Amino acid sequence: MGLLYGEGDPMKTLEISTRCGQDSDCNPSNALAVIGVIKGFNGLPSEMQEGVKTMGDSTFIHTSYSFNTAVESTYKYALALIQKDGGTVSGNKIRIKFQKPVEPPLEVAFPDIVFDRSISVFEGNTWSKKGKWQIREVSSRDGKKINQSIFSDRPGDELSLAFTGTGIALYGNWFKDGGKADVYIDGKLQRTIDTYYYFANQQHTECIWHVMNLQPGEHIMKLVVKGEKRPEGEGARVYITAAKIFRTIL
């Protein structure tokens, strides 16, 4: 939207991109990157140029690179790609081989699949548990304790859910003490998941596994705790909060 209605103006493009979305950091940044490629650094407003020059050699947090080293690295990648596709690079002269644009085929990841319902792990007798699952509590804003998830680190502990649909997404915690589990659909191993995450002091509650394009009808999802962790992990717990069910519109 920003690129379409910004008319090539960096500030107008930035404002539209920022005001259009809920997630307003990556989108404006990407839009301005495209404008920068089109106009060049000197085509940007003077205040933007001065800002970049001021922080150009500062290392980005949680990384080992700066803006200037990132630009240098990207430039090297571009030259390598130009030569790979038949162009030439000689000193300051760069010749790019003309290529006719080819429209790629349309790919739809999950055609006709829509959200059906969400099932909390604390929802009645919907879930079937085997083993010693425990409850993780967190404090609400008013100081009250609320149930956030259930967890287990005991090998062989199971959690099952019968559902009707064509897809299911399992939600839980990506924590520094997160461990591994096997996930089955209708008795067949679908994959082994690893719920460890700890980067820049961050942990998350997100989708930890999903499967789509199942045959319409009834299915059973079963998770089996392995009691295993990666070397840097602080535990082997597998946390579960909910499942989201999807169906296909025929």
How would you describe this protein?
The chain folds into 2 domains: 94 residues, no CATH class; 136 residues, Galactose-binding domain-like (Jelly Rolls). It is 23% helix and 35% strand. The strands form 3 sheets. Strands 3, 5, 6, 8, 11 and 13 form a 6-stranded antiparallel sheet that branches. Strands 4-7-12-9-10 form a 5-stranded antiparallel sheet, with no helix packed on it. It has a two-stranded antiparallel ribbon with strand order 1-2. Helix 2 packs antiparallel against helix 3. It is of the alpha+beta class and 250 residues long. It is built from 5 helices and 13 strands.
Task: Sum this structure up briefly.
This protein is an alpha+beta fold. The chain contains five helices and 13 strands.
* CATH level-3 fold name of the largest domain: Jelly Rolls
What's the level 1 CATH class of the largest domain? Mainly Beta
Basic shape:
elongated
Report the C-alpha radius of gyration, rounded.
25 Å
The helical percent reads: 10-25%
Q: What is the terminal separation in angstroms?
A: 32 Å
Q: How much beta, percentage-wise?
A: 25-35%
Level-2 CATH architecture of the largest domain: Sandwich
Number of domains: 2
The CATH superfamily of the largest domain turns out to be Galactose-binding domain-like
The total of helices stands at 5
Mean pLDDT: 92
Structural class: alpha+beta
